[in-house]
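Obj.: predict assembly geometry.
Materials: sequence records (below).
Method: joint structure prediction, all chains together.
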Amino acid sequence: GQQLNQSPQSMFIQEGEDVSMNCTSSSIFNTWLWYKQDPGEGPVLLIALYKAGELTSNGRLTAQFGITRKDSFLNISASIPSDVGIYFCAGQLRFTGTASKLTFGTGTRLQVTL
Amino acid sequence: DTEVTQTPKHLVMGMTNKKSLKCEQHMGHRAMYWYKQKAKKPPELMFVYSYEKLSINESVPSRFSPECPNSSLLNLHLHALQPEDSALYLCASRVPSSYNSPLHFGNGTRLTVT
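Observations (raw structure tokens):
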């Protein structure tokens, strides 16, 4: 199925550094979601974006819904060891039925060193 | 703790076995989803139930049989699986027909087919 292009694929950073990752698509979405997944667990929702241009924060996390509706960005400030994991973006198409599908990005694996 | 509960957490089954995965949520969500996730890959959609009716089947082989007995429960019946079906199976739920209801995931069942 379709996947979104997410970059970088992986990154090693030092504790305290800021992190940026992004997600791009050839298609327009009307919702962007960012999830974090730890080993052996399901994805956990971090931030949901519903409007083009929207900038939303959740603690040290900030995400933006691109103005073209084809991209989204996630920033993590002052990273800590528990930020380690895989971050997935997901785009949701404008639905026509009673259920709608998410298209997931390929994931960014984040590793934080002390 | 996730509000979507999946059992069992781990399952090992032979290719001739019949087993079932279970998912339960009490958030009043009437759209429930099954996803399959291979290692280091994003989740892939399998099935969507909306108001207890199957609304999306992503061309999944018939050896996977979903069932939604009521608005809180979702099952995935497994029969004659192949080793390549080994994966993390994730259940998720949301409010259907609502663009601002993000998908909430359970912690998954780690399935190994021997």
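Conclusions so far: Chain A has a mean pLDDT of 91.
To do: check interface contacts against the pulldown list.
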